[in-house]
Structure formats: structure tokens, C-alpha cells
Amino acid sequence: MSQNISILERIKSPSPKLFKKLGKVGLTLGAIGGAIVGIPTLGIVLPAALITLGGYFMAVGLVTKAVSTLTVDFDAKAASENK
């Protein structure tokens, strides 16, 4: 099987178990970061370093989720295509 597949095919294809777990971790980090960054809108004052850390959490979470989504388990993909 050719490993040169389009991005849409990669998104639709199954991911390995490790990357599914990493995707969940990425979503969790992104949610925590979003909550930290959003707290000042409620009138609660936080140190600038903590808000910066929240932004980093959001960025790392986004990248982790994107990479885990685009990773393909070619064995599972081949098995599903042979059915």
C-alpha cells in the first residue's frame, strides 16, 4: 500500500492506539489552557506567567491533537479495506 495519501484520507483512517491516547491528552491540555486563558474575563486576576502558560498549553494541545489525527495505522487501514 502506498503511504502517500491525502490529508482527508489520513483524517478518515484509523489511528494507532498510542496516538488515540495522545489525542485525548492534547484535547485535555487545550481545554485546561483555554480555561486558564479565559479566567481573566471573569474578573479574576492571574499572574501574567500563568496566562502565558495557559497559552502554551493550548498550543501544545492543538499540535498534539493535529499530529495524532493525521497519524495512520496502515495495518488497520489495510484490514478494513480487505473486508
Task: Please give a structural write-up.
This protein is mainly α. The chain has one domain. The chain has helices at residues 7-12, 17-38, 48-70, 74-81. The longest helix is centred in the C-terminal third of the chain and has 23 residues, at 48-70. The protein starts with 6 loop residues before the first helix and ends with a helix. The model has no long low-confidence stretch (mean pLDDT 92).
Secondary structure layout plus pairing:
Elements: H1 7-12, H2 17-38, H3 48-70, H4 74-81
Helix pairs in contact: 2-3
Short overview:
By secondary structure, this protein is mainly α.
Q: Write the element-wise H/E pattern from the N-terminal end onward.
A: HHHH
The percentage helix is over 70%
Kindly state the mean pLDDT as a whole number?
A: 92
Shape: rod-shaped
| Uncertain spans | none
Cα end-to-end separation: 15 Å
DSSP strand tally = 0
Main beta sheet = none
Strand content: under 5%
In terms of structural class, how would the helical and strand content be classed?
mainly alpha
Figure out the total of helices.
4
Rg for CA atoms: 17 Å
Kindly give the count of domains.
1
Which labels suit this protein?
83 residues; mainly alpha
